[in-house]
Amino acid sequence: MLGFVLPSSGASFYPTRLEDSKAVYLTPDQFPVHADGKADDSEAIQAAINKVQETTGWGIAFVPAGRYRITRTIYVWPGVRVIGYGATRPVFVLADGTPGFQQGIGDMFFFTGFRPRGGSSARPLTPPGTVPENLTIADANPGTFYSAMSNVDFEIGRGNPAAVAVRCHAAQHAFLTHIDFHTGSGLAGIHDVGNEGEDLHFYGGRYGILTKKPSPAWQYTLLDSTFDGQREAAIRENEAGLTLVHNEFKNVPTAISIDSGYSDQLWVKDARFENISGPAILISNEDSRMTQINAEDIVCAHVPVFARFRESGKQIAGAGETYKVKVFSHGLTLAGLGAQGESKTGFQAAPLNSLPPAGPNAIPASPPANEWVNLRSLGVKGDGVTDDTASIQKAIAGHRVLYVPSGRYIVTDSITLRPDTVLIGLHPHEAQFDLPDRTPAFQGPGAPRPLLEAPQGGHNIVTGIGIYTGGTNSRAVGALWMAGRDSLMNDVRFLGGHGTNGPDGKRIDPYNNTHTADPDLHKRWDGQYASLWVTNGGGGTFANIWTPDTFAQAGFYVSNTTTPGYVYELSSEHHVRTEVKFSQVANWELYALQTEGEVGESAFAQSLEIDRCSNLTIANYHGYRVVRSYQPFPYAIRIFDSHDIRFRNVHVDNNSSIGLRDAQGNWRQHVRSGKVSFDDAIVDETRHAVVRDREFAWLDVPGKPAPPHRGLPVEKLSTGFFNISGGAVDASGDLYFVDAHWQRIYKWSTATKQLRILRDNPLDPVNLMFDKAGDLIVVSSGGKDESVYSFRPDAPEDQVTLLERQPADERPGMTAILPTSYWVNGDFSNTLSTETYEYVTLEQMFRKIMTTRKLYQYVSPDRSLFIPADEVVIQGEPYFGAKFSYILQAYGLVNAVPGRPFYVTNESEQKTYSASVNADGTLSDLKLFVNQGGENLAQDAAGNVYLAGGQIFVYNPAGKLIDTIAVPERPNQLIFGGKDQRTLFIFSRTSLYSVRIKPRA
């Protein structure tokens, strides 16, 4: 067995009171609290959380041991951590039949995205699922950081079928740890997860965890946890990027159930399944490229069916009463670099005589709290003014385990740990080690100088602190880590950049007014060494790390080590050149690595570099660039001279999750795609090979070499562009297209094979099309929303006609102009139904958008064409903010001819559909065409479909793949032109290509 605690005896992780002058303590001398399990303590608990937010903004509310009865939803404001202490854990109790927890979803604790202004301490105390009059409570979101609960337990009494202990849909450094959920009659222990969980134990309930994707659309990692006795499934989820390491599931119908119509990137490692009556894993959307399932080292007892596929009913039977699964894999499998993927299911299992003893927890144990020495008690000030360097170093010399309460600890030289030093903080933004700007020891060129140094071979533990190296200290390394295999860094934030508050508690703006530098030009982006540098034999475990400091050369750098390392839920973002780098490294495992490239600083940044490495496993990797970027970057991952690199569940994307208010004042999550992802997922410089697939389940590097491609010759027509698309062809077959960044419209003459600039005006062109009279119609991102204008190609360039936006209507005799690709995931909320507990599927969302008439239309001057359009979603100020609409985000627009099949792809699903076009531009009779998505598509005269999805895949009208056209660069738009309409023009980011298509049946 895994050695987990019994249901009613969860050991207190913090058995004594931890003194912190900035924290709030829920004690009777401060709040009217009873802690007897009978009187209602809801108002007192909320008041304590409010006081943290009202005094320090972000911080800690300590809850002493006791039983606290809850009758209302308690709101945890952003950045507040609720932490229990005492000989036993405090228990939050929902009594039998508590009103408001019988229908819908009743949250005991609710992590929020902000606190409404003007609310008294009592105002937010509302019945579950309701909002006070004139008060909007926003769900936690991608901008909600640091919110957490730890060392508390929950008990849900009988007669509360809608009850949920915690809703925690937050982002970085949000977590739940050291909690027992006795959910009983309730719906779930957790609804809508955020970021990470450790040492969580779920007993009873309909589900242990019930969730959709985390609010930043990143991964959720759960470590060292157990599930026992759930009525329907231990975990029910969709798109959660579920990363499960060292967890136990027993006495349940199903361990992990993926919702109908949904995919997930599921990684399960070192798990134990016992007494599972149905399938241990229930897989949906089995044919989708977005379904990426991998499990390794799973021991099973009394699990007759290891996996079942929901749609087909296919089952993977177990290998006896007791067995071990070495590998289970399902999804798009690449045989090697550059190989064309194939959807496969793999299962390797062998019988066992008995269950083996469990291995160690993923997260090493910390020393007991009675060994902790409060840093402030040793004369360290932490006041943000005093230089604490000498006193901190003295404390380290004299004490093995140091507790770091809230404070800004100023240091002016390296803090060097002993080999056995343990530093424990409880809030990485409130317990900071700060290096002031212009600190002499860190100035000028020279060797790296760490703020914090862990020695070679050390057994160090560092948790719950922030490390800030400023913006002008060019020699600074946040942490130089050379500690050994059993060392630990957990819940550590490398401050600077996004999500950083100043000493006054206000969020620091990391940009000047053009987003091209810091507001203080003395602070140079990419001007310091890496934030976290593991080197010289360093290793250990790194969990829940956030490193978005744009001043650093990289967020996470590992070099010159073969000591094993384990990374769980690391977010490295907003760097100028490289987010994460491995150089001369072996024997590391990276699970739930997430990178984000921002538009201002990361336009030319790679996500991950692997140089001279071996024996690496990278699972549930997310490489992401924000939709506001201007152009794609050539590759997400670059590899040099490396082997035995295992990729499991790779997700490379470019979309934006935007929280905006609707007309009723409610917050909605809008998800939009863009044209600025990575061209290739992986580039291997040594083998001169690329992986164009951005979504796949399995690849070993180097793997089998891809066979040489023989196909139609592709000709490069022109190159040197920034990022071209938006093409259209006139009646003679000449091509027109846009380089939006430079606001240029080009013309390619098929007769002369020459390129010229047609228009070079500051009118923000994005997409083009021609009406029957020969007017060139231009969709523009200029203006308050989008705008549409027209001109004759041969007219003087001062002649422009603006087209008015008209109310939507049926347009008989006119042709609709529509995108062929969409990103539909979040526009129609997939919030769980409070009546049926079912989610709207992605396909249902997509169908609703395709079949719903748009609000407006633009009509061409000759009234032969019309362009349906909705309200534009704007992030930022009108005119200058980032704008999102389907006709702006599309790589190109096409004529949707009535009576001819229209093909459209949902990139979020990686599926392409056929449909019929209605007179108002809506689509009907949508049918799945192929389980392949892409950026754009085109049809030839015979009705064959050419889909741009890394290469060009050619399907006949029945959906059978009949050809593949290899292109030197990733294609993003396809359009037929030329005098005979048999020239396929191919747009890549920098170049224009063409290929002559032979007549096809």
Distance between the termini: 63 Å
Strand elements, count:
82
What's the CATH first level of the domain at 715-995? Answer: Mainly Beta
Structural class: mainly beta
Query: What do the pLDDT scores average to?
Result: 92
Which strand-content bin applies to the residues? 35-45%
Roughly how many Å is the radius of gyration? 29 Å
User: Uncertain regions: pLDDT < 50 for 5+ in a row?
Assistant: 1-9, 118-135, 660-670
CATH superfamily assignment of the domain at 715-995? Answer: TolB, C-terminal domain
CATH topology annotation of the domain at 715-995: Neuraminidase
> How many helices in DSSP terms?
4
- Give the overall shape, derived from the CA principal axes: globular
| Assigned CATH architecture of the domain at 715-995 | 6 Propeller
Cross-sheet strand order for the largest sheet: 5-8-11-13-15-18-21-23-25-26
Helicity level? under 10%
Characterize the main sheet: 10 strands, mixed
Protein architecture, described:
- The structure is a single chain.
- The protein is built from 4 helices and 82 strands.
- It has a 10-stranded mixed β-sheet.
- It is mainly beta.
- Among the domains are: 14-210, 3 Solenoid (Pectate Lyase C-like), CATH 2.160.20; 373-562, Pectate Lyase C-like, CATH 2.160.20.10; 715-995, 6 Propeller (Neuraminidase), CATH 2.120.10.
